[in-house]
Amino acid sequence: VDDWGFNIVALGIILKLKCGIDTDIQTDSAANGQEALDMVIQNVIENNGQKCDYQLILMDCNMPIMDGYDATTKIRQYIYEQGLAQPIISAVTGHSEQSYV
Q1: Has residue 17 been placed in a domain?
Q2: How far is CA 33 from CA 11, 52, 73, 77, in A?
Q3: Which residues fall within 8 angstroms of residue 64, CB to CB, at 6 or more apart?
Q4: In which domain, by residue range, is 35 found?
Q5: Counted domains in the chain
Q6: DSSP of 54-83, one letter per residue?
Q7: What is the pLDDT of residues 30-73, one digit of tens each?
Q8: Looking at residue 11, which CATH number applies to its domain?
């Protein structure tokens, strides 16, 4: 989840080449936290409330519409309310200032 398309492409390349992630794995992308939340909800609905297919979400911290902090909180709450297994949500940011680390 990132508002910069380049970052989404770069993360995909890193996962495939450097982390040994299977190239057959399905990936989705969202441009902001609201899109990510909507995608998670839609996925659970499509699975009849039985599961969430998203196992890993790489979430930018600062985005327009809904930032990564709020999106993570809302995704966690929704998944909890559905009684489903929580996906791993990892923060991704370009900030290197001590206050962000």
Answers
A1: yes
A2: 17, 17, 10, 14
A3: 3, 32
A4: 5-92
A5: 1
A6: --EEEEESS-SSS-HHHHHHHHHHHHHHHT
A7: 999 999 999 999 999 999 999 999 999 999 998 999 999 999 99
A8: 3.40.50.2300
